[in-house]
Design brief:
Distance between the termini: 56 Å
Order of helices and strands: HHEEEEHEEEEH
Number of helices: 4
Shape: globular
Largest sheet: 8 strands, antiparallel
Radius of gyration: 16 Å
Strand content: 25-35%
Number of strands: 8
Helix content: 25-40%
């Protein structure tokens, strides 16, 4: 029993290839090429619920920002509804995995760490716990994000 528990703990701490690859997504992928389930309810029409090619087994829900001009520029995986204790445990596991891939992150706050200087086209990876302390999120921003965010704002302005 002790050996099995130790092996499980070590497996949880090992870097997950999905973490290193932004859940298998490729920068610039068009909406038509993604397995987009629907638009995120109550959000602008450039944020979609998506199914990742290589999901992280610790995350349940995925969303992406996709514009017609830039394609995919940001993807986020999240696990909502955890207890605060379980959310902190999951954050710690994911932090260790991201740190093994990207090196030491920059702690922005008690709830957020950013891992920069990643290999292009991934510009940055962020790990955060939501305001309610029960949601754990991993977000990847691709190097086309600057133009994509401008185009997303334009979509907001014209109401598309």
């Amino acid at each position: 029993m002790i050996v099995r528990t130790a092996l499980l703990f070590v497996a949880l701490l090992l870097p997950n290839p999905a973490s290193a690859q932004a859940f298998g997504f490729t920068m610039g992928t068009s909406l038509e090429e993604l397995e987009a389930v629907q638009q995120v309810p109550g959000k602008a029409n450039y944020r979609y619920v998506v199914v990742p090619p290589t999901p992280n087994p610790r995350l349940e829900n995925y969303s992406a920002i996709v514009t017609p001009q830039d394609g995919l520029c940001q993807v986020m995986g999240a696990t909502p509804g955890e207890t605060p204790e379980r959310a902190e445990q999951l954050r710690s596991i994911l932090h260790t995995a991201l740190q093994a891939v990207y090196g030491e992150g920059t702690k922005i706050s008690e709830r957020e760490t950013v891992f920069g200087n990643t290999t292009p086209p991934v510009m940055a990876a962020a790990l955060r716990i939501g305001r309610n302390n029960t949601t754990v999120m991993v977000e990847y921003v691709f190097s086309n994000y600057a133009s994509c965010s401008i185009n997303a704002m334009k979509l907001d302005q014209i109401g598309l």
